[in-house]
Amino acid sequence: MKRWFKKAAAAAAAALLLAGLSLQASAATPYDNYIYDEEEVVPVPPAATPSASIDHTAMGTTALKSPQDLFVAPDGYLYVADTGNNRILKLDKQYALQKEFRTFLNNGTEDSFASPSGIFVDESGNLLVADTDNARLVRLDPEGNLLAVYGEPESPLLPADFDYRPIKVAGDSAGRIFVASRGFNRGLLELDRQGVFVQMLGASQVTYSLTEMIWRLFSTDAQRDRMEAFVPAEYNNISVDAEDFIFVTTGTYDEDSSGESMTPVRRINAKGDDVLRRVGNPVADEEFTELSSIKGPSLVVDVANLNHGLYAILDQKRGRVFVYNVDGVMLFMFGGLGQTFGTLTTPASLAYYNDEFLVLDAGKNQIMSYELTEYARLIFLAEEYKDDNNYEKEKETWEAVLGFNENNPVVLQEMGKIAYRQRDMKLAMEYFRRCDDKANYSKAFQFYRRDLINQYFTVGGILVIVVLAALLALHFFLRQRRKKHPKEKKKGPFRYATYVIFRPFDGFWDLKRENRGSLKAGLALIGLAGLALIFQTQVTGFIFNPTQPEDANFLIDLATLFIPLLLWVTSSWCVTSLMDGEGSFKTIVMSSGYALTPLVILLPVASLISNVMTETEGAIYYFLVALAYIWMVGLMIASVRQIHNYSMGKALFVILVTLVVILIIVFVILLCTALLQQMVAFFADIYSELANRA
Description:
The chain is an alpha+beta fold. The radius of gyration is 34 Å and the shape is elongated.
């Protein structure tokens, strides 16, 4: 329940924030500018602004028709696969047409392309075209002369019904050729420099979650057949980076599924293994799709390799470009769908050219260019300094970026890493706390704690010895005093709680039959348990606290205890009254309060010691919290048995029935709430209709 409240609040806040952003963004850009920080949307300055709309007129050619690919050649020229017009365009840095590749001589006969969808140009300026509807690759020299034609690959490894339709092509420095074929879900096709099939590379594996595996055990044959129909996703684009690693994308992404096939961006090595770093999560708008009118996760159709390990991905579904660093951390985004200048309709390909981002729009049949703002240029410069290990310059640059937005989580994290490298652990912890980076905060805290221990070891050791000596002296003094003045004293209601938790069967028996406890003490323990939950939220160390103290709501903390407890007490009284239980409602309330004693004792202890623990030592904290709740459940079971004089078997059965009753009560409450809402809406509609007619 607590997590549900948090997610609901975060989603509502994010929706309001995006609504505000859209009003502010219209002045500078026709789209929102934001990044993600855990479950929150963080507004940021615009990273890229629309600079030019490059259509056929600007290029000096006839109108484009459903273009599908952009490629920046090593010699600086820009190539466009104008798929609908069956041609390849070569543009200079001013986007003027330099050459059109439409026909070529093939064994003395004029030949042409049929829906060419992909283009690659090597260091020599030779073109390699994915001639899709002709089911072949065509290699041309810079003048358009035919060098080679590579037809359908032949291999017993390929399926018998393989329909070869190359849509994207790329090559590496060794001359290897990589092909993505439409409808082929076994990875990329790797060819040698002569176009001979070598292997299938990077095929993704479909895996099933534990829930799906259990479900398969109880499924019919037809249901199992449908589950077998879940096949690996096919790749829809390829890009080879400067280190000869292959970036691939897939548009078939299902957020409810699992496995490699559900990774929309991958970086494949020569063995076909995915080596993309994912400290962040490079899947564009996967997590926050409910904030937009367009539902579902992003449809990634292209990836562009930038300098210093950076890369950008293109989301066709929302017309956005997301830029990531080498760790997979999102740096910024821009773009959006629409008909106005700077927006897109059907983005098909992405390139970084002339220090600008270019997006090929297959719907508008043009190229949209986006110029980087000073904010984005500083981010790129900081990443360059980081890649060059120039930490001083990197720090200065990130500080300049922080001047644009002091709450940018990406910048705060990078500043924390710089402080960590400079051994300023206290400052690093501050930055990591501000960006909610618990893992790095824990690393910095480990060194900070060690420095404190080294600095204050002597004073701290002496203080501990003095305190222990004082406690021992007090213990012996009280012990001697009790021997001299023995006095039989019955345990008070609160002290009796410590007796109950260690001897529950005797304790709960005496609680009812010898009146050893009191209702006031039971209610007080319930109140203390609620305070313990609030204390846990406010005091638990940053590393282990899922809620920031300033964001906590103590009413939610109390509700997570009091509502289940009220349901338990009420349902238990109803069930035990019908099943020969001897305990009254008062006794049930009182015993339930005493059963909460472990929460009162252990939760504050766990919360306090969590402030001196690192992430690797968290097992102690989680053990204490788990022990508190397990102990509480055990005491609840013992209380039901002893208070109502049941056998253990009957007590467990009564508890099971009680839980069923709780579920029924919750269902009835939800049902009544839904009916009440419908009634209110019905009468509101009637009132509105009568008011309109009047």
